[in-house]
């Protein structure tokens, strides 16, 4: 490898001071056109591509980039419709400020904390994670502007979220109306992402705040309708994937006491539940009521009763906090959208 040319060598070849050569790149308006052309010609001759961006960032104390800490496989950012919407909101604000966005996938590996600690970013947006995730302390320790989407709440770090418990109680009431055997298809309970079918999930053991708060809302809705939460089946999925939810719902529907109402934690999961219902020859909502969450693009064509929220707006709100605009306001808005999938 050839040694990288320096700005001082460019200045010497162009017959100008190092400061003038530097201004050619950083403040071109302060350099005469003829001088600027001479500096750029010398740079081209030496193969000098410009000042080291890392050194420039150190001088100005900013990388012009925010980091999105994603507790998922990197492909999740492009495959999951809700993640895509959220990241679009972050990107929209970054683009308006002339900032870039770095995605930092966190997978539970030993170097997760180091990856966060060493990230060359001006602020952090943390995608929903678990109470015991060590990257939360690492983000806080950087003392850069930071915000968590969905939870958990961390002292000194912003939080952008809807009231998941209240929304789940509302959608649960719609799902369980007229039901005799309610059930839930759930997000993961902890970072080990173990799939399982349980009954009356112990909320004290649920480490993902979003999952915990939604299960609490569903529990309240079930008890409001006269059900004992300890008897309500909860099918836990490792991912927010339609195919996995379909398999979980098929297992519920093939059990000795199949449910006649299923509340799912996303529209993707609800779409999988509807596939399982069709495969079992069930009519929706007569034989099985189904609800989703997010009011994603699949919801209206499927007639899904769901919770509407704007993850794009929430992503934008997170970006503004990470850029130092101060703490977010109150909880983000949500609404119940009733369609034909419930009784």
Layout of helices and strands, plus pairs?
Elements: H1 7-14, H2 18-26, H3 33-46, H4 53-60, E1 65-70, H5 76-79, H6 81-97, E2 100-105, H7 112-117, E3 123-126, H8 135-141, E4 146-149, E5 158-160, H9 164-176, E6 182-186, E7 196-199, H10 209-224, E8 233-236, H11 242-253, E9 261-264, H12 267-279, E10 289-291, H13 299-302, E11 306-308, H14 311-322, E12 335-337
Parallel strand pairs: 1-2, 1-3, 3-4, 4-5, 6-8, 6-9, 9-10
Antiparallel strand pairs: 7-8, 11-12
Helix pairs in contact: 1-2, 1-3, 6-14, 9-10, 11-12
How would you portray this structure in words?
This protein has 3 domains: 7-51, Orthogonal Bundle (434 Repressor (Amino-terminal Domain)), CATH 1.10.260; 65-160, 3-Layer(aba) Sandwich (Rossmann fold); 164-308, Rossmann fold (3-Layer(aba) Sandwich), CATH 3.40.50. The protein has helices spanning 7-14, 18-26, 33-46, 53-60, 76-79, 81-97, 112-117, 135-141, 164-176, 209-224, 242-253, 267-279, 299-302, 311-322; strands spanning 65-70, 100-105, 123-126, 146-149, 158-160, 182-186, 196-199, 233-236, 261-264, 289-291, 306-308, 335-337. Strand 9, helix 12 and strand 10 (289-291) form a beta-alpha-beta unit. Helix content is 42%, strand content 14%. A 5-stranded parallel β-sheet has the order 2-1-3-4-5, sandwiched between helices. The termini are far apart. The chain has 343 residues and is α/β, with parallel strands linked by helices. It is elongated, with a radius of gyration of 26 Å. The mean pLDDT is 93. The protein has 14 helices and 12 strands.
């Amino acid at each position: 490898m050839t040694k990288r040319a320096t700005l001082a060598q460019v200045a010497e070849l162009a017959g100008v001071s190092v400061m003038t050569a530097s201004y050619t790149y950083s403040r071109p308006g302060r350099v005469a056109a003829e001088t600027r052309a001479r500096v750029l010609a010398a740079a081209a001759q030496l193969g000098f591509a410009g000042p080291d961006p890392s050194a420039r960032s150190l001088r100005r104390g900013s990388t012009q980039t925010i980091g999105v800490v994603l507790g998922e496989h990197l492909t999740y950012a492009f495959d999951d419709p809700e993640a895509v919407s959220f990241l679009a909101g972050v990107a929209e604000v970054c683009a308006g400020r002339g900032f870039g966005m770095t995605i930092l996938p966190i997978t539970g590996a030993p170097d997760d904390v180091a990856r966060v600690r060493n990230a060359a970013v001006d602020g952090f947006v943390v995608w929903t994670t678990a109470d015991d995730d060590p990257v939360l302390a690492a983000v806080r320790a950087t003392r850069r502007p930071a915000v968590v989407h969905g939870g958990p709440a961390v002292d000194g770090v912003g939080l952008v979220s809807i009231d998941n418990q209240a929304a789940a109680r509302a959608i649960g009431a719609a799902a369980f109306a007229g039901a005799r055997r309610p059930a839930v298809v759930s997000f993961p309970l902890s970072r080990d992402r173990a799939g399982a079918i349980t009954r009356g999930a112990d909320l004290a053991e649920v480490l993902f705040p979003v999952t915990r708060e939604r299960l609490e809302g569903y529990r309240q809705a079930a008890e409001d309708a006269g059900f004992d939460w300890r008897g309500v089946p909860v099918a836990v999925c490792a991912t927010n994937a339609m195919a996995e939810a379909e398999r979980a719902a098929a297992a519920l529907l093939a059990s000795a006491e199949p449910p006649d109402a299923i509340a799912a934690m996303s529209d993707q999961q609800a779409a999988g539940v509807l596939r399982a219902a069709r495969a079992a020859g069930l009519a929706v909502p007569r034989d099985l009521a189904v609800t989703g969450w997010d009011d994603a693009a699949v919801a209206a064509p499927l007639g899904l009763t769901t919770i509407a929220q704007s993850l794009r707006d929430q992503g934008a709100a997170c970006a503004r906090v990470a850029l130092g605009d101060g703490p977010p306001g109150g909880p983000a808005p949500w609404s119940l959208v009733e369609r034909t999938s419930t009784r």
